[in-house]
Design goal:
heterodimer; A: alpha/beta; 6-stranded mixed beta sheet; 5-stranded parallel beta sheet; 39% helix; B: alpha+beta; 6-stranded antiparallel beta sheet; 4-stranded antiparallel beta sheet; 10 strands; 25% strand; globular; Acyl-CoA_Synth/Transferase (chain B); nucleotide-binding (chain B); ATP_grasp_subdomain_1 (chain B); Acetyl-CoA synthetase (chain B); ATP-grasp (chain B)
Chain lengths: 496, 240
């Protein structure tokens, strides 16, 4: 039974995400170690609380007065960053008895290596004895922009509403940096490493309880407490959860004595968990980040997204896009006659198609300097004939019309439509050729669109896959009735 | 004797599994339909027992030592009357002897009417605890691995989705001119195995694996035609 068992996760992990004071065990007086870098990151990120380096002999570390031991603290600290050799960790925790709430142990050499489990057991015993919750070991730190706490650089100070639990330190940095580039904004990210004491499920519970967080992302490789995670996710019905699971492809259990045992692979449990909790399983880091972006920008609708309208320039791209959305389980239906008539009345230039996909050559878009597009948005937006509009723009082609800022007009029109309460989900695909000037423009538009709540993708296929995650959550919440045995069976009924 | 006592006794005796008759009794106590049956010790007893049952019959050897009965000629289906069943018992005893095996008990049961064969399975996963599986029988499970798993306890909605997920699901609805099967009976069986008060949740600490193979789903009812319970060693248990 861990300490704090009777308190909420919000209370237990406030010291981790919002520490009023931080002790650093393992910073050097003579070289630059992990602890020194952490102190520098804290300062650069603008941390306002007290930083207390712990060192057996040095007077000052990183220009801060050092203390000899956690035991010498005059008042308890919320959070300790511990980066010393594995065999010294239990002693550090013992010295923190009554002086420390949460320790994060970065050190490796525990359960992740052969023969390291005994050392991990000692760490857990020491933590329990001292009444300290331990995150890790074998991890990199915590990122909490609202508290101005971070463990790495180039993560961005902007606080957001996505909370991440990450079992890999390095991947945690990828998620922060690449996510930031896509427009993701985080409420927090914790690298949890081996989860010797604090489990992934407990941090998920924290994010589920926290008012700062709307969306939860989880990277896990192996969980010792899968059942607790399952129950935590099952109890969380309000916040979308995206899971990136590493190691989903091992074989079933060769030693099983039954059919059932020989058929089960490690993936079955995760697929089951996702189906039963409404979590979205992503297969790749890119899909994970794209899906998080969808949930950051879009609110799941009461009726699952099914009918998608594509609008953009490029006939081949429209066809491939339709295929991608169909494969992802969407309909790309022909628009109803009255909508087609309304679009035809806009007198789109030759070469346009208005049936869905709505395909307009770039040359046609320059009519009225791109002001045709807002009219198209007006016609389809209120039609009730679609659940999502995906606008895709071949940037290179559109940018070649240099005498007007057609791309700017298009993006502005989308932003205005969103601000005016455009009813269907709206997503934008900006297709670039990778040239620096085009990428530069894309970065600007991405920032503006995401800030306005419009998710931006590089390609239609990734838009389709990520929006499928949104549909999954919508369908799960709607608890749709299934068709089996040739008649409708309610899925809402309780156990017999 | 309660189910806990039955399973506990077998584990204490070092058994790795339950014999089919005990397994079916346990299924029946959880509300799963099983064919009516009698346990007999020889062909003379079989003739008496057959009077209380409706032919056609199925005859199986009862032994927790024999996990794969059909591999050693320990299963005979479609026996038309008591004479045929009695002859089958004697022939089976000889066949077993040729494999160096012997048995002192036999299961005589009514043959389940034809239907769609399914498999319901269970296991205790080291991370997630009890899990339940469903698939269609035959090539669907053997070749195509067309199965669906859930973590217990399942809701009825989970059970519906498990069946929906199977590629072979149209067969349950009466594809290829066959009558649709009694889906509610299959869902009931899934709930009784994997639901909140189901067999797996109640005995996660004692059961390692479970196969109901086949569960025969007919237009009226679903019947467990075989049951295999794999027990955990007496010193091992799973706890959440």
């Amino acid at each position: 039974m861990p300490p704090f068992a009777n308190t909420s996760a919000l209370e237990s992990f406030r010291p981790l995400f919002h520490p009023r004071s931080i002790a650093v065990v393992g910073a050097s007086a003579s070289s630059v170690s992990g602890g020194n870098r952490f102190i520098r990151h804290l300062k650069a990120f603008g941390y306002q609380g007290r930083i207390l380096p712990v060192h057996p002999s040095a007077e000052r570390i990183e220009d801060l007065p050092a203390i000899r031991s956690l035991a010498d603290l005059d008042e308890p600290v919320d959070y300790a960053y511990v980066a010393v050799a594995a065999d010294a960790v239990p002693g550090v925790l013992a010295s923190g008895r009554g002086k420390l709430r949460v320790a994060q142990v970065m050190s490796s050499g525990f359960g992740e290596i052969d023969g390291g489990q005994a050392m991990e057991d000692r760490l857990v015993a020491a933590a329990r004895e001292a009444g300290i919750r331990v995150v890790g070991p074998n991890c990199l730190g915590v990122h909490s922009p609202r508290a101005r706490v971070t463990f790495t650089e180039r993560t961005g100070p902007e606080p957001g509403r996505i909370g991440i639990v990450c079992q890999s330190g390095g991947l945690g940095i990828d998620i922060l940096r690449r996510g930031r580039g896509r427009g993701l904004r985080f409420s927090g990210l914790v690298t949890v490493g081996n989860c010797a004491d604090v489990s992934a499920a407990e941090i998920v519970q924290y994010f589920a309880e926290s008012d700062d967080t709307d969306v939860i992302g989880l990277y896990v490789e192996g969980v010792r407490d899968g059942r607790r995670l399952f129950e935590t996710l099952r109890a969380n019905s309000t916040k979308p959860v995206v899971i990136l699971k590493g190691g989903r492809t091992d074989q079933g259990r060769a030693a099983a004595a039954s059919h059932t045992g020989s058929l089960v692979g490690s993936d079955h449990a995760w697929v089951a968990l996702a189906r039963q909790t409404g979590a979205v399983l992503a297969d790749t880091l890119d899909a994970f980040l794209d899906t998080l972006l969808v949930f950051q920008c879009l609110t799941p609708a009461a009726v699952p997204t099914r009918r998608v309208v594509l609008f953009g320039n490029g006939g081949g791209t429209s066809v491939l896009g339709s295929d991608a959305f169909s494969r992802a389980g969407f309909d790309v239906p022909r628009l109803p006659d009255d909508i087609v008539a309304a679009l035809t009345a806009l007198e789109l230039p030759a070469g346009s198609s208005v049936r869905n996909p709505i395909d307009t050559p770039a040359g046609a878009l320059q009519k009225d300097e791109g002001r045709l597009f807002p009219r198209i948005l007006d016609v389809v937006g209120g039609s009730g004939a679609l659940d999502a509009l995906v606008v895709h723009i071949n940037m290179t082609v559109v940018l070649s019309f240099r005498h007007v800022d057609m791309l700017g007009n298009l993006v502005d029109a989308a932003l205005r439509a969103k601000a005016d309460g455009f009813a269907p989900h709206l997503a934008l695909v900006l297709r670039s050729d990778g040239e620096p000037d085009v990428e530069e423009k894309k970065r600007d538009y991405r920032a503006r669109a995401v800030a306005a709540g419009i998710p931006i993708f590089d390609e239609l296929a990734s838009a389709a896959a990520s929006l499928a995650g949104l549909r999954l959550v919508e369908a799960f919440r709607a608890g749709l009735d299934g068709q089996i045995g040739g008649r409708t069976v309610s899925r809402r009924s309780a156990a017999p | 004797m309660t189910v806990h006592e039955q399973i506990g006794r077998a584990r204490a005796a070092g058994a790795g599994s339950l014999d089919e008759a005990t397994g079916k009794d346990i299924l029946a106590s959880y509300g799963i339909a099983v064919p009516r049956h009698r346990i007999v010790r020889d062909s003379a007893e079989l003739r008496d027992a057959a009077l209380a049952l409706e032919p056609p019959f199925v005859l199986k050897v009862v032994s927790s030592a024999i996990l794969h009965k059909s591999d050693v000629g320990g299963v005979r289906l479609g026996l038309r009357d008591a004479d045929e069943a009695a002859a089958a018992l004697d022939a089976m005893a000889e066949a077993l002897a040729a494999h160096g095996l012997s048995a002192d008990r036999w299961l005589l049961e009514e043959m389940v009417p034809p239907g769609q064969e399914l498999v319901i399975g269970g296991l205790t996963d080291p991370q997630f605890g009890p899990m339940v599986m469903v698939g269609l029988g035959g090539i669907f499970i053997e070749v195509l691995k067309d199965v669906s798993f859930r973590i217990c306890p399942i809701t009825r909605r989970d059970a519906v989705e498990m069946l929906d997920e199977l590629k072979g699901a149209p067969l349950l609805r009466g594809a290829r001119g066959r009558p649709p099967v009694d889906t509610d009976a299959v869902l009931d069986a899934l709930m009784r195995i994997g639901g909140p008060d189901g067999l797996l949740m109640s005995h996660a600490d004692a059961l390692a694996e479970l196969d109901i193979n086949p569960l025969i789903a007919t237009p009226r009812g679903a019947f467990a035609a075989d049951a295999r319970f794999i027990l955990r060693p007496a010193d091992a248990s799973w706890s959440a």
